[in-house]
Amino acid sequence: MSQFGIEDFPEILQQARQGDESAFRVIYRTYHGNLLRFLRARLRSDAEDVASEVWATVAKGLPTFVGDEAAFRSWIFATARRRMIDLYRRQAVRPQVTSEVDLEDQAVTVPSAQLEIDEAVSALVANLTPEQAEIVLLRVLGGLSAKEVGVLVGKSEASVRVIQHRALAKIAENLKDDA
């Protein structure tokens, strides 16, 4: 297993393209955790729904996907980002009220260790601007390069690096203040 994914990715991808459910499960298990952390840090209560939409899109588009593992990660997180934007637009047109019951139900269905990790990730990016948070999450959880993130967010690679540097400095300062 590599840092962000699967050692024999081309073979697993080919098997998944041919309809091998166990190969798709390997892909899902490898990337789902970080995808969900990214979504939870940005969305909170709708993260699982958006993740489901992302995986449905991935399953549908897998036969025509072309690229290596880095391109695959980029595709997954780009799809997640588009689904988040779609959700924001829907909510702007038809605002939803979140009740405490929804949040309690979510806590019951998610293992406590997973919740702790998700809460820690959310806390780390909580004081960042939305742009900084998105860039840091895409770089760290998505394992995307500065160039790939730049393409996703419409910024140059250099701008992504500067924003990431400032965001990480802000996180470090916040951690120092908490200590």
Automatic annotation (TrEMBL):
Domain RNA polymerase sigma-70 region: 27-92
CDD domains linked: Sigma70_r4 (cd06171)
Pfam family, one: Sigma70_r2
Transcription regulation is among the record's keywords: yes
Stored InterPro entries: RNA_pol_sigma-70-like (IPR039425), RNA_pol_sigma-70_dom (IPR014284), RNA_pol_sigma70_r2 (IPR007627), RNA_pol_sigma70_r4_t2 (IPR013249), RNA_pol_sigma_r2 (IPR013325), RNA_pol_sigma_r3/r4-like (IPR013324), WH-like_DNA-bd_sf (IPR036388)
Record domain RNA polymerase sigma factor 70 region 4 type: where: 119-171
Disulfide bond among keywords: no
Signal sequence annotation: none
Entry keyword set: DNA-binding, Sigma factor, Transcription, Transcription regulation
Alphabetical list of PANTHER family matching this protein: RNA POLYMERASE ECF-TYPE SIGMA FACTO, RNA POLYMERASE SIGMA FACTOR HI_1459-RELATED
Family, as annotated: Belongs to the sigma-70 factor family. ECF subfamily.
Protein name: RNA polymerase sigma factor
